[in-house]
Amino acid sequence: MNKANIVKTIERSLIKLNLIGLIDHGGRAGSNFFCCLFDSHEEVISVPWIHYNYSYFIDKFRTEHRINKNDAKFFLCNETYFKYVYNYPKKDSHELIKKIGGNIYSFKKRKELREIFDIYIEHKEEFSRRDLILLPYICYALSIKKKIDLVKYVLINDAANLRNENIIDNFDGKIVDVIIKDFPKAKMISLARDPRAQYASSRHQSVNEFDNNYNLSFKNFFRIFYNLLKEKVDLDSGPANLSWILYQIESTRIIHKCKKRYKTNFITIRNEDINLKFIKTMTKLSNWLNISFFKNWTNNKYEPTMLGARWKGTGAYSNSYQKVIDGLLANDPHEISKTLTGPNKFVTERWKNRMNKNEILFLERIFFEEIKSLKYKFSKDLSKLSDLRIFFRYGLVPDIGEKPTYKWIKSGFKKNTNIFFNRILYFIFFPLLFIICRIKLFKFLVIKKKFKKVIY
Hints:
Elements lengths: L2 H14 L1 E6 L7 H7 L6 E3 L6 H9 L4 E3 H10 L4 H4 L4 H9 L10 H12 L4 E3 H15 L9 E6 L15 H9 L4 E6 L2 H16 L10 H9 L10 H22 L4 E5 H6 L1 H12 L15 E2 L2 E2 L23 H4 L8 H4 L7 H10 L1 H6 L13 H8 L11 H10 L1 H31 L9
Parallel strand pairs: 1-5, 1-6, 2-5, 6-7
Antiparallel strand pairs: 3-4, 8-9
Helix pairs in contact: 7-8, 10-12, 17-19, 20-21
């Protein structure tokens, strides 16, 4: 294909293509898995290595609508996930793509993609935001010789909130607003999952990455206490349990506002329905999108692909994703993780064994509105109990992975003295951290009623 034809084909595609906007509002609903399901669909361009297109754009350019070509190229090729497709593999890129279940070396058409992208990006002086969102996908499709005339959609995967939004304040839904502004007929998919399962998975990852629930060490000792007392809670600093509760609540609040705001654009798909009612759910989704049903989905041994190669799965419980394998919370054995790539029942019920009974019942009060709205089953009917009674009955027991253990401290000694003494520090100050955290939870649950009127 010569330069003129490349430009002409891309221009035609930019005008024609609509967007599927996948929003995993609380995290851990299986957005990567979902994108892999459409990896080979002839009517959809899905590049599962690329995430958070609008999040990165708004963070970089705010509300600008047009970007000059030099800024556009640098941004796409260096500051977004497109860099893993465009640039030749490096060690850090290999590790990240491996973490999400892919292989950086499986994409064999980088030379062709780079040529196509460079030709188009150099042919004009500035680009619209809408075109810059679509361009990486179109270039990828052309590089693998996908029949572009058959394509109806580009599938993107993003969050319900911007990275710099405070998880204690209400999110404003700017990402969805901007998507709809660029694509008024966008097909928006709210990918939902049982909030108890989302929380268990997210908390698991954070506890192990922090090395403890409160992210406490000698290095940040005073900051951790100060932030907790001042309620400066975030996903990067913790506490793992409190930060993920607050994040999920605010994410739920904003996605339901967006669904109400853009009723005709949205559909809700539950992760559990994809795993347990795969054919029925994908048929419903295909009909809603007005695309053909992908024949490979009917194969009993169907496994999703990522850029054409077998997807190896991902998740907070996997040793390939979660590098900490001797933390307070144990990962799944590799023999189990490697089998969890296609639709399966195990991933829908794993959370029940990842939390104690008190923790589950306490979370059922916190996430009550979303559990009810999405028609998940409660473990126990606690509707007649007040928030105060719920708190004192179920909220004062340490979560799994919150309390330090002898085995965990001992393994720290085997690793190095720094980790060992940090774990001793956590053992000493855990009671105080626990008390402060529960005071904050009491405030949010009983006094401020922060977990009420999340969906209205």
